[in-house]
Design a protein that fits this description.
The protein has 156 residues and is α+β, with helices and mostly antiparallel strands. The longest helix is centred in the C-terminal third of the chain and has 33 residues, at 120-152. It starts with a strand and ends with a helix. The protein is built from two helices and seven strands.
């Protein structure tokens, strides 16, 4: 099974505590996800993630409805948390969210997504033709959404 990586880094004009609090609140996922995937929670999420938190949601990938269940594997406030797919479209998905304080009002956010496609070679063809570009588009949207959120106000 081939493993792929997606890495993104962005600086936001807020403290590390504010950044961690924003990202560890699952309700903010909807604010950072493009409308084209029709993200919707299936069960009400908590206000904050903790180790073992389960998030269940539905989205559309290439027009196909997909249910996804994520488990929060670890939380190291305010510097890191990790979510892993328990059920969903990938053979494996692990997303590490890391936060590094640059100064009192700026935080570097790093996303590392490690994932594997299902269906062997067919999945790898889908990765090259569709998935790689779609993931880039989703994370591009997220980056732009964060810029918009923080350009109007220092507080979320």
């Amino acid at each position: 099974m081939a493993t792929h990586k997606l890495e993104r880094t962005q600086v936001v004009p807020i403290s590390i505590r504010e950044a961690f609090d924003f990202f560890s609140n699952p309700h903010n996922l909807e604010r950072l996800t493009p409308d084209l995937v029709h993200f919707q929670f299936l069960t009400p999420p908590p206000e904050r993630v903790s180790p073992g938190t389960i998030l269940e949601y539905r989205l559309r990938l290439y027009g196909i409805p997909v249910k996804w269940r994520t488990r929060i594997e670890s939380v190291e406030a305010p510097t890191r948390f990790v979510d892993v797919q328990e059920k969903g479209p990938y053979a494996m998905w692990r997303h590490t969210h890391s936060f590094r304080e640059l100064d009192a009002n700026h935080t570097e956010i790093q996303d590392l997504v490690e994932f594997a496609m299902p269906l062997g070679m067919l999945g790898e063809v889908a990765y090259r033709l569709l998935v790689a570009g779609s993931l880039r588009q989703i994370f591009d949207y997220r980056e732009a959404a964060l810029r918009r959120l923080f350009s109007n106000s220092r507080k979320l």
